[in-house]
Structure formats: C-alpha cells, structure tokens
Amino acid sequence: MTDLAAATAAILLVGQRLDARGLAPAGAGNYSQRLGDGSIAITVSGAHKGRLSPDQVMRVDASGAALDGRKPSAETLLHCLIYAVDPQAGAVLHTHSVAGTVLSRALAGSEAIVLTDYELLKAFPGTDTHDTSIALPLVDNTQDMVALASRLAPMLRPAVPAFYIGGHGLYAWGPTMQAAEMMVEACEFLLSCAWEEWKAR
Fold first, then answer.
1. pLDDT score of 158 more than 90
2. Distance between the two ends of the chain, CA-based, in angstroms?
3. 177-199 and 98-106 helices cross at what angle (nearest 10)?
4. How many structural domains is the chain composed of?
5. Residue 152 contacts residue 158 (beta carbons within 8 Å)
6. Domain extent at residue 81
7. 14 vs 44: CA distance, rounded Å
8. Cβ(174)–Cβ(90) under 8 Å?
C-alpha cells in the first residue's frame, strides 16, 4: 500500500523527468497517486513540476476535497474521475506537448484522436499488434471542471487509459507511477507522429 511519503517521492521524480522532456512548461500539468487509504496525493496548484518540493504535494479525498487545508490543482476533479472510472488506476499524469496541443487544435470538433498502425500502439493494455487503431477521447477545453468531468465520464475506459483536452494537454494513467509514465511517453510519441503526418498531407 502506497503511503504519502512514497507517493511524494514518486511524484517529485516523475516531475523532474517529464519537465526534462519538455512536457511541463511554465508549471503546467498536475500529477497524482492513489494512496493505500483511498485518498489521493496530488500536486498543489501552480507549482513548477520540474522543481517540486515535498511540501508541494498534498492529500485530497476521493471527491477532491483538501485534507490538509492547502489548494490542490485546479483539475483535481479530473484525477478523481479517472480513479472512480478505473479501479486499477494508481497514478495519473497530465502533460503538455507542442505536438499534442497543435494536433488537438487541428482536430477541433472531433471526438477522438485516432492513432492507426503504429508499433507503439502495443503500449496500450490488451493490444499486441500494430495493425489496429486506438481512439483517444478528445474534448473541448473549458475552465468548468464539473462540466468537463461530466462530458468525459461516458468516454473513459480502462483499455484506453488516456484522453486529450483540445488545445490543452494529455491525461494518461496506469496502475503504478511507472506505468502511467510509460503511457505518457507512448501517447506523446504517437501524438508527435500523428502531427508530423498531418503536416505532410
């Protein structure tokens, strides 16, 4: 069972790694890990993810309410939604890449970013071939997290542990922090490939 100290260490490390890859510009993004008691360790609002300190990770309950008086990320409700939809989810990462952001804008009005015939599609649970398509749910950006969570809820499923907020960023998750990071890596790589293909049309 993961405790707050272990989750904090994992969040700080992944923050450094994702920032080094250019996936956490200007303090953007938020990261969380489910704890053994059912609460959630999550980054506080506004913290630079590449320079996180232990006091910038806090606890919220399963509904997103702060348990220690601090202000959690503005998008905490989306983390809570993922943990509710997927009981196996143990960690959630929200990243921002240039390729994903501009591709999602190019696909405005679509309900998914469809990725087809890439070898790295095998990173998705239950997928053992490149000869397939994976549809990442794509939703319009809004500052109304309640409305966004409501739109996302029927679109999410554990077999595709990721979604994209248009013009904003990627959410990806997994049973462990390592698995969530690998899903982020796979998705961001695939989104970069898809954007290069879009530009070449």
1. no
2. 49
3. 60
4. 1
5. no
6. 4-199
7. 15
8. yes
Phi, psi dihedral angles at 85 (to 5 degrees): -75, -35
Where residue 5 falls (left for φ over 0; alpha for ψ -120 to 50; beta otherwise) is alpha
Does 171 score more than 90 pLDDT? yes
In this structure, the number of other CB atoms found within 10 A of the CB of residue 25 comes to 15
Please choose, from the candidates 189, 144, 142, 143, the residue with its C-alpha nearest in 3D space to the C-alpha of residue 162: 189
Q: What is the mean pLDDT of residues 161-170?
A: 96
Is this prediction's pTM over 0.90?
yes
- Residue 11 sits in a domain whose CATH number is 3.40.225.10
C-alpha gyration radius of the chain: 16
Asked if the model's pLDDT at residue 71 lies above 90, the reply is: no
Closest listed residue to residue 161, CA positions, set 85, 107, 98: 85
